[in-house]
Amino acid sequence: MPLYLTFTFAFLGFTCISAARVVLSLFSLELGAQPFQVGVLVAMFYAFPLLFSWPIGALSDRVKPRWPLLFGAMSGAAGMTIPFFWHSLAALYIAASLSGLALAILHVLAQNLVGLMSKPAERARNFSNFSMIGASTNFVGPLIAGLAIDHTTHATACLFVVAIWITSAVLILVRGQILPASKRPTGPTTHILETLTDRKIWRTLATSGLAQLGTDIFQFYLPIHGHAAGLSATAIGTVLAAFAIASFAVRSVLTRLVSRFGEERLLAYSFYVGATGFALVPFCHSAWPLAFVSFIFGCGMGCGQPITLMLMFSHSPHGRTGETLGLRLTVNNLLRVLGPAVFGTVGSALGLAAVFGLNAGVMALGGVLSLPEKKPPAG
């Protein structure tokens, strides 16, 4: 029951975040925002996750999850209430920031709870189900946002998101006492930075960040490539949908794949498939070939985040799982902020083909880092 409760409030919360991104972005355009201002608005969703995922993870190892989760849900609800009464870009920035705070709390604690409630043999299945919940909200959230805006107003659409946050808060308030707390460390206290001397930890952090970077860059630059090739918005949307479908499909069979190949080897294969997808993009200039390449990329990188999540939890020191998962999200969000700027500079200087080629190399590097280390010979 606690596991299904975690899945339920994760679904509600991630749906709110996905819907809020659409509502606030379109609301800003309605208010006359320029592209740079919209970009700042989107960046505000990641400000608090970047700054606070690590401290939130450390906190989650010391307190019961019920009250932090409730605070996160109420922060999201409060943030989305503000634009209903105050129609300005400043209000939208505040709403995006508080939504990002809610995301940081929800993401860290929900991941940690899934790991805590899973026996080692069950982690692949449960983390796979958790990742599919996140993937499904990328469809449900924007759908709710679009319907709400079309049938009401941008301001009123914010209240639809508020209603879902409040539903989540009530659920946590009523049933949250059954959620388990992290296990207290039994050995001597160590600083989290000391754990980075463990090769397994830093390798997982590196591969997790590269998987996040590759996914974001692909989703950001593929529409630009499609636009340059003269594709319509519908065709570009179809190409991106192929990526989403492949990601969801591969996560639905992730448990069997992990059982067959092992976590690290499967992660390495996923990077190699992702590298292939990046390398093929510059040679495709019509919708169907690009959709096929997008599907290939989704089959590969759809495995990336769930597997690195499993590995990070497995490699975490006893009683420090929340903190290490928070550290993982901090690294991911740092690359989400820096990556587009770096590759944007590359694209401006060398063209889009260089961006895809360079990322193919980065994904191949991720594959090398992911390969399981060879055990020294016995004796």
Characterization of this structure:
The chain has 379 residues and is mostly helical. It has 2 domains: 177 residues, Growth Hormone, Chain: A, CATH 1.20.1250; 176 residues, MFS general substrate transporter like domains (Growth Hormone, Chain: A, Up-down Bundle), CATH 1.20.1250. It has 15 helices and no strands. The protein is globular, with a radius of gyration of 21 Å.
* Alpha-beta classification: mainly alpha
The tally of domains stands at 2
State the name of the first-level CATH class of the largest domain.
Answer: Mainly Alpha
Span between N and C termini? 48 Å
Percent helix: over 70%
**Beta-strand percent range:** under 5%
State the total count of DSSP E strands. 0
User: And the CATH topology of the largest domain?
Assistant: Growth Hormone, Chain: A
Average pLDDT number? 84
CATH homologous superfamily title of the largest domain: MFS general substrate transporter like domains
Which short descriptors sum up this protein?
379 residues, mainly alpha, Growth Hormone, Chain: A, 2 domains, 15 helices, 0% strand, globular
What order do the helices and strands come in, and which of them pair?
Blueprint: H1 2-30, H2 35-60, H3 66-85, H4 89-116, H5 123-151, H6 154-175, H7 192-195, H8 199-228, H9 233-252, H10 254-261, H11 263-280, H12 287-301, H13 304-315, H14 321-350, H15 352-370
Helix pairs in contact: 1-2, 1-4, 1-5, 1-6, 2-4, 2-14, 3-4, 3-6, 4-14, 5-6, 5-9, 5-13, 8-9, 8-13, 8-14, 8-15, 9-12, 10-11, 11-12, 11-13, 11-15, 13-14, 14-15
Task: Give a quick rundown of the structure.
With about 375 residues, this protein is an all-alpha fold.
